[in-house]
Design a protein that fits this description.
Helix content is 25%, strand content 32%. It contains 5 helices and 7 strands; from the N terminus they run ααβαβββαββαβ.
Length: 159
């Protein structure tokens, strides 16, 4: 007990009372929009070339390469059936341009979706954030986001 008290006095531990007394940051209320297209999240081998279908013009495309994989998220209709993908995703986009130093933007979307038991696939670009949910979960996702105070438009394609 003396050891714990000494650590508290020296600042080595934070008491439960101190942790609870910290101000809770209010969650951002964001302008969101649902993109029209259904998307597929694809995984290819790390050393695979970017396929021609990924280079075709479309309303949404992200490509990420790591040492372990080539990941491509694209409009589902352009992805060949034989490509390893998770299909039937819809994207919810934060409208407008976000400065890169903003804090808590993704959390303000992810937390109400997690509370509703919905999984997400998040993508950030230079300008904004996207959260993808399964198409079958879209109505529940929008209800959860509206319940969290977000303003949602629907039926748009990516800019």
């Amino acid at each position: 007990m003396k050891f714990v008290l000494l650590l508290l006095l020296l600042g080595g531990l934070v008491s439960v009372a101190d942790a609870q007394a910290r101000p809770h940051r209010e969650r951002a209320r964001l302008p969101l929009e649902v993109l029209h297209d259904t998307l597929a999240i694809c995984r290819l081998p790390a050393d695979a070339p970017v396929p021609a279908w990924a280079a075709a013009p479309g309303s949404f495309l992200t490509i990420s390469r790591t040492a372990g994989e080539l990941s491509i998220t694209a409009v589902q209709r352009v992805v060949p059936a034989e490509v390893r993908c998770e299909r039937d995703y819809r994207a919810i986009r934060v409208r407008g341009t976000l400065p890169p130093d903003l804090v808590g933007i993704l959390l303000s979307i992810a937390e109400p979706l997690a509370d509703a038991g919905l999984s997400i696939f998040a993508i950030s670009t230079y300008d904004t954030d996207y959260v993808l949910v399964k198409a079958g979960d879209l109505a529940a996702a929008l209800e959860a986001l509206r319940g969290a105070g977000h303003d949602i438009e629907s039926g748009r394609t990516a800019p």
